[in-house]
Design goal:
Helix content is 33%, strand content 23%. With 383 residues, the protein is an alpha+beta fold.
Length: 383
Amino acid sequence: MNKLTIAVVFGSRSTEHDVSVVTAIGSIIKPLEMSGNYNVVPVYIDKNGNWFSDPKLKDISLFSSGKIDEFLQKQKPLAIKIGNCLELVKLGIKPKSIKIDVVFPATHGTHGEDGELMGLLEMAGVPYVGCDMPSSVLSMDKALAKIITAASGIPSSKFIWFYENEFKTDKQAVLRRLSDLKFPLFVKPVHLGSSIAITKVNDASQLINAIEVAAHYDNKIIVEEAVTNLVEVTVPVMGNLKPVPALVEQPLTESENFFDFESKYMRSGKKGGGSKQAQGYSKLPADIPTVLYKRAENLAIDVYKALGCSGIARVDLLIDMHSKEIYFNEVNPLPGSLYEHNWRQSGISSVELVDKLVKLSIERFDSRKNLTTVFTTSYLKQY
């Protein structure tokens, strides 16, 4: 049996570029190669949007050493050929073409996880791992995700969203709208992940600066009321028509803080025996009552389905331990490092995880082959 050729796409013009590199090399490329079932092609998109492929891009030390720019200067970029297939063409005197069977996206954030890459892959007619384009677009827009899930009866804390241009044009009008919210508040860029540029605001004096920080990264901002008596939990989910949760995980943060970029990626698990990807500050499973634990699992699945997710995603929830209410916070359609530490504790190894995700991508692709995409008419004959 011939091995499938899988392109792992990572990097891109995103604030989460570096996180993407770690996810791709450590959590996707390495276990795919360990399985022995695939030919793995690394496809790196640099911070200027140029595409490259070379076996040496599988080595994390090339990136951690800071030598990546020097290496790329000696490389020929890729051209992309699409039709009813996806081919990567390495340019040069003798162009080399590689036909791709499946794409495994590892592009966190903008120009990738937000649906842009998925749209390209849909046009190319190639199976790809993870959420499709519509669910990626919805999941990466924190405001739209809350609006869609609310229509399915899933509660969120009170929020207001607005465009950066509205704030720049009439600051006072936006502040009047926000006066309906109760402090403390969280100010967030709508489309970013990894908790980048999120600010907790305790009073009105901090609000303008927090909005300006968010607007530096995004043209759409959301402001949310904080949940009191808070326990934050996150639930990785996997599957297509029958999604299943991993363990409900409880990030460990101080009561006055939140699960920010520092907590997620920079602490390196120095406490609690965590992994290098910094999920060392969490309890697996979450230390919450059994009834709440089950409700969190069910609500995560409901969110996953409401947004049309498939393959894999991570659903973040907020629990008021006094009222026992559970609120939807946000969805990450491409969890950092695939949250492999959680799936491992759930009984699924990193090799099994990537193998399952590849199979799910092919299953979804095959199921859509039966859809009619052409409609024959006599419309053009009248011209």
